[in-house]
Fold UDP-glucuronate decarboxylase.
Amino acid sequence: MSSSSVKDAQTLDKNGQEIKSVGFQRFGFDCEVSLDSLRSLYLRSHYVVSASESQVQELDAKEEGHGHLTQGPNAYQSKSIFHPETQSISYTTLSRFAPVKLLPPSSRKRILVTGGAGFVGSHLVDRLMLLGHEVTVLDNFFTGSKTTVSHWVGHPNFELVRHDVVEPFMIECDQIYHLACPASPPHYQFNAVKTIKTSFMGTLNMLGLAKRTKARFLISSTSEVYGDPEVHPQPEDYWGHVNPIGPRACYDEGKRVAETLTYGFHNQDGVDVRVARIFNTYGPRMNPHDGRVVSNFIVQALRGEDMTVYGDGKQTRSFQYIHDLIDGLIALMNSDESRPVNIGNGDEFTIGEFAELVREIVEKVQAEDGVKLERRVQIVYKPIPTDDPQKRRPDTTRAKNSLQWQPRWSVRMGLEEMVRYYKAKMSEGSM
Ligand code: NAD
Ligand code: UDP
């Protein structure tokens, strides 16, 4: 299949319906944007379905002011050109930004996103920017990168600040999404003490800011608060099973104390809080070297290297696509639900099965792009890391009832898009 026929491939949701937009209208906050506008910010143009000029004019007539593209997606991408002979890369910055919704001042929010240059943060920033809000990103670039948000630098609604959340920060804002914290086991274990400091002091500082500004505060907590769970699937009222001194404790206990702190400010000081317990999420812009399973498997399969399954591969995880997570985070922020809410996809795989699925999807995408594989990549087994949870699957009843939120993306659809994203990064030399 040529790249032009890739354009014709539809993106279908779990029920076989075509996905044309993400987000939805909830709690008076419209968060819907077209999938094409969003994709144009992270996927190379030949994989993005582009509207013809006449279609665009038709759309313009119908949906005045909505954040869709008015030029081909190519016009909204920064360019990087790799020069193999000198092993160098040249960048061009954008002179034009993707169109953002023009909101009346009464609906425009000033939103702070800590960790906004990371994987989850950068997708949240894209969505909030396209929706027309004013966004400030606070990041120390430990695991994030300026390149994830560089397409917004210079936009009047956007500000990027290099700052470590363990230090206090002053700003006027209406909503705080507090995401800053390394999330992959190799990264959060790299400096365990710093991870605990980030979780505790970073959350303390951001809650202090929320208290002063009366901003609503959302923290990205994690399924790791359930540790190696003895209850399956995990509902929010399960207290967890965490080793407090193991190698994962800096993250697990850090997030647990961050939640305790959050409810401390809520109960003592009336801070308006939201707690999202995020389950394994994957998608474009995941740092390919951060050691998490989805990025490891895709990169290994694309490079023709052995895929490394840790342990016997019988441990399970359930994987959620990034756009579903962003829908859930925005819905939670704007809802009245102040209890913790699990946000994840219930499709559970053993890691062994998952390796096979990734290999099959990489082979499919390569075949569609006309790439002939020299050999089938092998799946090899390596020792399992200490305290690796044996099973994990969210009970998302609360998210369904309180937010009317359910994941839409099948794991397969999300993986196909992520494979295309990494392929494009490899071919442009930036990975
Ligand atoms: P990421 O590592 O890609 O992003 C984290 C961002 O925080 C990076 O940009 C990093 O530079 C920044 N950061 C780290 N320490 C900081 C500090 N002290 N000061 C300022 N910035 C700092 O990880 P991610 O996957 O995007 O995760 C984002 C949030 O979501 C984290 O809080 C994580 O715990 C949570 N989460 C993610 C997942 C997932 O599967 N991706 C699952 C559960 C929870
Ligand atoms: N894993 C694996 N191979 C890898 C990376 C991870 O088999 O190359 C396993 C890991 O041991 C765990 C699961 O995949 O059982 C998910 O790991 P990840 O680091 O992505 O997230 P977490 O353990 O925090 O859920």
Observations:
- The first helix runs from residue 3 to 8.
